[in-house]
Amino acid sequence: MARRTREEAEQTRCRILDTAEALFSTHGVSRTTLATIASAAGLTRGAVYWHFEDKLDLYRAMLGRIIPNFDTHLDELKAGAAHNPAAALWRFSNSLLRSVTLDARLQRVLQVIFLRTEHVDELAPVQNECIAKMREAHSTLTQILLAAQARGQLQPQVQPVMAAQSLQALHDGLLRIWLADSQRFDLARDTPALLSSLYAGLFKPEVLEQLPPHP
């Protein structure tokens, strides 16, 4: 019985999160109340508050469902970089962007983060947490580019710290544009072409020739 109760509680929690993601994506975070979420999920406000202290707590839980996806990509990048930093980074960029096209929840939550969130008032604390994750990712990209530099893979003029900033901005920018207007380009199909110009500026021609065209 206790196990069933735990399973039911988890199902209810997921139902609340699924509903919140849909409403946030459609109406924006600031215009969506916990009461609205409860009503749309067919639950009482008390049921929502039993699982989540407030909207900030719910928002964090929503982010928590997609963070492992990005952590997995970063872990794979670090592991692959031990053998070939340039190839690992190329695979990382491609797999990161393409993964969003294959996961409806990931698309929905990123749309909420990029296009439907105002980091003010009750959600202000989460902004610093998001910034910390971005800095962590930038640090990882910098380390990989430093490893590539040590192996003689980078163009002479490339500065790893600045290159990491540019690469991170390219990833985020492409995702923002595609999430706002998916008709602009086919992200799943066009990812290598969208990345190629920046990579051509980062890596030596002989290194680029060894990168797989469709990782």
From TrEMBL:
PROSITE patterns: HTH_TETR_1 (PS01081), HTH_TETR_2 (PS50977). Residues 33-52 bind DNA. It comes from the Bacteria. GO terms for molecular function: DNA-binding transcription factor activity; transcription cis-regulatory region binding. Gene3D superfamilies: Tetracycline Repressor, domain 2. Residues 10-70 form the HTH tetR-type domain. Keywords: DNA-binding, Repressor, Transcription, Transcription regulation. The keyword Nucleotide-binding does not apply. The keyword DNA-binding applies. It holds the Pfam family TetR_N. This is Transcriptional regulator, TetR family.
